[in-house]
Write a structure and sequence with these properties.
Largest sheet: 7 strands, mixed
CATH superfamily: Vaccinia Virus protein VP39
Number of domains: 1
Strand order of the largest sheet: 3-2-1-4-5-9-8
CATH topology: Rossmann fold
CATH architecture: 3-Layer(aba) Sandwich
Number of helices: 6
Helix content: 25-40%
Shape: globular
Amino acid sequence: MTADDWLADTRTSYDTVAVSYADQLRDAIAGKTYLRAALGVFAERVLATGGGPVADVGCGPGHVTARLNELGVDAFGIDLSPGMIDVARRDHPELQFEVGSMTDLPLDDASVVGLLAWWSLIHIPDDEVPTVFKHFHRVLRPGGPLQIGFHVGDISRLKTEGYGGHPMTVYVHRRQPDKVTSWLRDAGFEIESQWLCDPDEEVPQALIFARRRP
């Protein structure tokens, strides 16, 4: 499968489920203590640098972007799916959202002071992840914080239905934290912390806190 193929499938899938996805996940952060804590740590790191624009890459319907702004962070959202961006703009008209792909991030060099990518890397194939992380490094200012959230595991599976029973065609890649941190170090990041959440669940979740090396 070419990059154009899986990107098109991912875009179409999330266009299809955008409204249902937003309805199901609108209050998801409120019930997740560790996710709220992770966002708080990220916001604190951003504000400690003096603040500035922050990119929420793979923002979906914008609920995480909105939470960051509530924490005092000047966050904006980027997502591959125009349907998701339409929902984000509908639900959060005061915030900025744009269509774009993390595989060719439409941001200037060193233009953001922080970058967050929560559970959006899960659809990126292994051979494309180093390119994505090079873009993250390029757009971040030296010392800027990066936070990545993803599913933990060793398999990839094809998701054909989701969020209200709508059809989807997306691969979901589960990865071990050590694999992700290795890619990040190769791309020029320093790892600050790793969190493993829900370790007893069928699919644990991981959060990695990093920063762009000066």
